[in-house]
From TrEMBL:
<comment type="similarity">
    <text>Belongs to the methyltransferase superfamily. LaeA methyltransferase family.</text>
</comment>
<keyword id="KW-0489">Methyltransferase</keyword>
<dbReference type="GO" id="GO:0008168">
    <property type="term" value="F:methyltransferase activity"/>
</dbReference>
<dbReference type="Pfam" id="PF13847">
    <property type="entry name" value="Methyltransf_31"/>
</dbReference>
<dbReference type="InterPro" id="IPR025714">
    <property type="entry name" value="Methyltranfer_dom"/>
</dbReference>
<protein>
    <submittedName>
        <fullName>S-adenosyl-L-methionine-dependent methyltransferase</fullName>
    </submittedName>
</protein>
<dbReference type="InterPro" id="IPR029063">
    <property type="entry name" value="SAM-dependent_MTases_sf"/>
</dbReference>
<dbReference type="GO" id="GO:0032259">
    <property type="term" value="P:methylation"/>
</dbReference>
<keyword id="KW-0808">Transferase</keyword>
<feature type="domain" description="Methyltransferase">
    <location>
        <begin position="50"/>
        <end position="176"/>
    </location>
</feature>
Amino acid sequence: MAEDKEKSAAAVDYRKLGKDVFEFFTHRTAYNSAAYLIPTLERMKQENPRLRLLDVGAGAGSVSATFAQIIGPEGHVVCTDLAPSVLPQAEAFAESLGVKNIEFKTADVHQLPFENDSFDVVHCHQLFGHIKDPVAALREMLRVTKPGGVVAAREGDRETEIIWPPLPGLKKWHEYVFDSKVAQVHGGTLTAGRQLLAWALEAGVKRNQIEVSYGTWLTSEEATKMVYARGISKVLNGPSRKNALQFGLTEEDIDEICRDTLAWADREDSTWLMLQTEIIVRK
């Protein structure tokens, strides 16, 4: 029974995904994916250099490791993910940066294995759009946050995505990832960004406790675009190819996606952007 409850927590069972999926996200750091939170961390660090930060649904841990660098050696980061297979990747990434003040645990955001009031900061990035009950997840994140601490979340609004030029294969990739074939059919949502504030209020937080900001994901530099394009090719030509075929892509579709995405990355005029909503909740 407990196992069934755990399986129902995530819109997609990330424990079954190949490591190639998680490697695709290692370009994310606290600096490019959680910049809205860094000034708050710096202020909190001045008051308490022994900050404890929990990063939930952290995947390959690249954001977690850079958080550990920001809060400094006296602070401590706990990096968690539902997929135990990804934690060795996260640990290796931290080691590559020489980060020591971090540990790694398997954990479900709906059932965090921590006592009440355990962390000064609890963070997640692009998590709520992939799970069935983001309000329950927020309540659980608040539970393990100390009084005076903060919960921070950043979510993309996938319906605001803009791609130029809209090459056929690139459009197929985003339709595959962002439409009902992957997200909604499993209980996720494409509109997490616009719902983030509403979810926090539904979780019982008062409006004056919530700071809301907005940003964008903008991919326009050649190196970043190529990381993105090569990552897509690696995902679709790795263990996840079988999943893509099961969700309706054909072999021809996959070949077109890989070809067009690399062509897109090689163009000077190509860009990709999406609106992001960010919240900082003060407990």
